[in-house]
Design goal:
The protein is mostly helical and about 250 residues long. The chain has one domain. Helix content is about 75%, strand content about 0%. It is built from nine helices and no strands. α7 runs antiparallel to α8 and α8 packs across α9. The radius of gyration is 20 Å and the shape is globular. It is found in: Endomembrane system. It holds the Pfam family Far-17a_AIG1. Belongs to the AIG1 family.
Length: about 250
């Protein structure tokens, strides 16, 4: 859909801005050891992984939209690809994007120094925090509220998520084993055993919980859409989104 084209362009521009900012930072005298380590291991930040994954998700949707307009893709191929994208959304994009948003801002509110100290403002303007930790979550949530996603089975989504989080945690542990440095400042406040448990909880258990939340919310949206259809309401995106606050009361009658 055209929505995916716009979002794909947005993500592409944001990625270029981020890479440009990092490239410019190499010409700056760095006094922050945390920033220096993070810059050298940029690809190990979860937000970078999710940014690339989300871009691929929306770009693929955009390509499907364009090819569908030109009738250059077989219907069976399109359905299989959309099913794959649908499962990818629930298994990876939704839980990991929400993890980044709530995890970052939750720790930021508790103590900024353990997640994004003020010294970082000298290298990355603060609005980048919203670009990479806030806006993606809003976009992903809107994607769900549009009401076109099909709820997958839990088994088909938990496996990709478990594999992805296991690989990511392994990379973080490997980095610490080789460099004796954590990728995230919060873990310096903990003992080694607490840090290991914290990684498993934050990067594995919490995403699985968020996966279930995403599935539940999608069922909620589908239920509301069906209520609208039963009431002979028009289901255009705009009217559907506007009626969400009112339809919640109908669900719990």
């Amino acid at each position: 859909m055209l929505w995916h084209v716009y979002v794909s362009i947005y993500h592409f521009v944001i990625m270029l801005l981020g890479f440009k900012q990092v490239a410019n930072s190499w010409n700056v005298s760095v006094k922050s050891t945390f920033f220096e380590h993070g810059r050298s291991n940029l690809w190990k930040f979860l937000s970078v992984w999710v940014q690339v994954l989300t871009q691929l998700y929306y770009l693929t949707h955009a390509i499907i939209y364009v090819r569908k307009k030109n009738n250059t893709r077989k219907k069976s191929e399109e359905l299989n690809l959309q099913l794959f994208l649908n499962n990818t959304y629930f298994s990876l994009i939704f839980p990991l994007t929400m993890l980044i948003c709530f995890g970052f801002w939750g720790l930021f509110i508790i103590d900024r120094k353990i997640i994004y100290p003020e010294e970082m403002d000298d290298y990355f303007p603060f609005f980048y925090c919203h670009i990479y930790h806030t806006i993606p979550a809003v976009i992903v949530f809107i994607e769900l509220l549009r009401g076109y996603l099909k709820t997958p089975t839990y088994s088909s989504t938990i496996r990709p998520l478990a594999i992805a989080t296991t690989v990511y945690i392994s990379i973080l542990f490997k980095t610490y084993a080789e460099e004796k440095k954590w990728m995230y400042l919060v873990f310096y406040k903990l003992t080694l055993l607490q840090s290991i448990a914290g990684h498993v909880f934050f990067f594995s258990i919490v995403p699985m919980i968020l996966l279930q939340v995403g599935i539940y919310l999608n069922n909620w949206v589908i239920t509301m859409r069906k209520l609208m259809e039963n009431n002979d309401e028009k289901t255009s995106n705009g009217k559907f989104l506007k009626r969400i606050p009112f339809l919640i009361f109908e669900i719990f009658k």
